[in-house]
Amino acid sequence: MTGLYTEAFLEDLRAHAEALAPRWGLSPATRARLLNISENATFRLDDPEAPAPVVVRVHRPAYHTPAEIASEIAWTEALREAEVVATPALLPVAGGGKVATFAHEGETRHAVAFEWMEGEEPEAGEGLVPGFRDLGAISARLHAHVQDWTPPPGFVRKSWTWETTIGPVMHWGDWRAAEGLDAEGRAILERASQRLRKRLADYGQGADRFGLIHADLRLANLLEKDGRLGVIDFDDCGFGWFAYDFAAAISFLETEPYISDLAAAWLEGYADVAPLPPEAAEILPDMILLRRMLLTAWIASHAETPTAQELAAQGFSAGTVELAERRLVEA
User: How far apart are CA 5 and CA 36, in angstroms?
Assistant: First the structure.
């Protein structure tokens, strides 16, 4: 493994996660094991003296500022208080607050801990349709909450727009650097990018279609248990199009033949709770392509992660080009 999250780096973070355990009321006997690597490194803490495990997210350096982390926490806690969605509680840090800090390789790192939430990640396939009806309703409740909620002073989160995903700012890197892209593929994606720029500008950012969103409702961030669909990991929440939450939900599945069925179910579940603008159904394919190009950039800029390595080996970039070609033909 190369890049930021080398084996030695992860082992060092794991040791830090164990050392931090008493700050969340866990015993010194607590042991940590890695759950996953994405933007951040997430660990499971098992304390023989505690009734349930604890999940600790160690934030990737130079991604979210302390103010952005505090803002994510503020929205998550507001959602829990209003019982909008089932999501795990954040654990307080001894001495106050919800964020633990520690020094690591000459810089300050941030970590947050969550209660354990039981459940299983939904299995990809046509069987997702009923669950996506539920997910549409959950998305609508999240977005409705935002429209009535007053964020605390100093609230700041990233925006997920054309400019910040595949345009000049690019939070997750440049899709042009993705493995497997040749000159022809890059040219197709350049054309698709410019078409997306116009389509999204025409769709606009009115209050009925744009606001604070989860932005990463993919299957890995959903937990099913006895009919309850829980949502975890608001780390990417920010300002974007409400319809983008559907595109994020089908991350890595964009070329599957059952996506249209998932879209119909999501829209149906959403409409049961709140209205979307009439143009929302028409913009979904553009949101899907926007997300797919963003993920292509993520794979290029996070090549050290197992997910990026697996997807690159499967020809993810070629799939992105095929999706863009189809969208250009449909236009």
Answer: 11
Specify whether the CB–CB gap between 82 and 146 falls below 8 A. no
Q: How many residues does the chain have?
A: 331
Q: Per the confidence metrics, is the pTM higher than 0.85?
A: yes
pLDDT digits (tens, 9 = 90+) for 241-295: 999 999 999 999 999 999 999 999 999 999 999 999 999 999 999 999 999 999 9
User: Per-residue pLDDT for 2 more than 50?
Assistant: no
Contact 128, 122 (CB under 8 A): yes
Angle at 33 between CA 69 and CA 125, to 5 degrees: 80
Q: Can you list the domains of the chain with their CATH numbers?
A: 7-115 (3.30.200.20), 126-330 (3.90.1200.10)
Neighbours of 280 (CB within 10 A): 20
For tokens 């495990």, what's the residue?
53
> Would you say 250 and 220 are in contact if contact means Cβ atoms under 8 Å apart?
no
